Amino acid sequence: MIFVRLLNKTRYAILGVLLDGPATGYEIKALMGRSTVYFWRESDSTIYPMLKVLAREGKVLSEIVYVGKKKKEVFSITEMGQIEFQGWFDSPTREETPRNEFLLKLFFATDRIEMVRLFQERLEKVEKIHTEYKKIEERLESITDSPRRTVRLKALRYGLAHLESEIKWLNNEKDK
Amino acid sequence: MIFVRLLNKTRYAILGVLLDGPATGYEIKALMGRSTVYFWRESDSTIYPMLKVLAREGKVLSEIVYVGKKKKEVFSITEMGQIEFQGWFDSPTREETPRNEFLLKLFFATDRIEMVRLFQERLEKVEKIHTEYKKIEERLESITDSPRRTVRLKALRYGLAHLESEIKWLNNEKDK
DNA sequence: GTCTTCATGTAAGCCGTTACATGATTAA
DNA sequence: TTAATCATGTAACGGCTTACATGAAGAC
């Protein structure tokens, strides 16, 4: 019985971040925490072990750097790593298993009152995220030197368009 | 070290289905496969073991029924089961860990060509789902007797509004 | 001095998917 | 008679989260 699954995509998220330059595990974690976290969340403890695995596989290089007495392990992507990243990037995107608890509850709602309560709860959540996105947009707009600026802004606006359409729909329903 | 996690929501999906009446594991599976599957997918093998667990816990009652020589196990929800369901339904909805591979790729795109390819791929997928939804809508509209008809239609149209907004956005971007 | 941030992990254990298994009935 | 559908599961194993651990440097 052989399982060749490799569903774990943490590696691609890490390799993708390293495309922009060498970083420590901590820096990768921090970057994800303020950028990909809304559409791609990694748990705290996934980054470091995966970096070790990637190093063993030759997809990243590890270098120990001392800042004063403080030891850091800085990782950089290798050619092999770039090839693996590109292989993933170019392959068809597999959908995640859908698991939307809000819609599941909506499906089981029995009357308009329950529905409106669900809409209200959802609206509050979505508006919070929208506010966050707007802040990120401002930050991104003020940057002029990054080569990824345009594409990241586009990705962000894709998310914003979504959220705004949802907010409009929910507000409309709520007041009906 | 005590873990009180109970993140597994399969039980609520099952209890929710049983609210509409008794069913076998197979029927629950089939119903989910043609209704919740777009926003809540259960793997093949989750239903039966969970029904056994729920029976042990007294949340459902099991009854063996013979149809000719064929044996079936029909489950119905108990009062305890209804209380558990309601407890979940009324509690705040916890967001799933975001894992959107399409957005992750978009985040790592380097130029407009890559972006447009991703948009195109996404568009094809979303249009397929939209077609499916439209079929379900037709089916639902033709039913007049179900007490859940109105609420299920609303849930569906929430999804449709989403998809249509996304399709519009993607088409717009593609042609820019 | 103490709190926050930097920096890096391990272990336990639930979660979920895939592969594999079995057998009856019914439609073509 | 063969394929599809009904009907019900088990086993293996990778995936992922949460809790727990450690220690230095810098800010206040």
What does this structure look like?
- The structure is a homodimer.
- With about 180 residues, chain A is mainly α.
- Chain A has 7 helices and 3 strands.
- Chain A is elongated and about 60 Å long.
- At the A-B interface, helix 1, helix 5, helix 6 and helix 7 of A face helix 1, helix 5, helix 6 and helix 7 of B.
- The structure holds a DNA duplex (28 and 28 nucleotides).
What is the gist of this entry?
With 176 residues, chain A is mostly helical. Chain A contains seven helices and three strands.
Total strands of chain A: the figure is 3
Whole-angstrom Rg of chain A: 20 Å
Arithmetic mean pLDDT of chain A: 92
How much helical structure, as a percent, in the residues of chain A?
55-70%
Task: Jot down its keywords.
homodimer; 176 residues; mainly alpha; Arc Repressor Mutant, subunit A; 2 domains; 7 helices; DNA-binding
Write the layout of secondary structure elements.
Two copies of one chain form a homodimer.
Chain A: H1 10-18, E1 23-24, H2 25-34, H3 47-57, E2 60-67, E3 70-77, H4 79-90, H5 101-108, H6 112-142, H7 149-174
Antiparallel strand pairs in A: 1-3, 2-3
Helix pairs in contact in A: 6-7
The first copy, chain A, binds a DNA duplex (28 and 28 nucleotides) through residues 1, 3, 5-8, 10, 24-26, 29-30, 42-49, 67-73, 97.
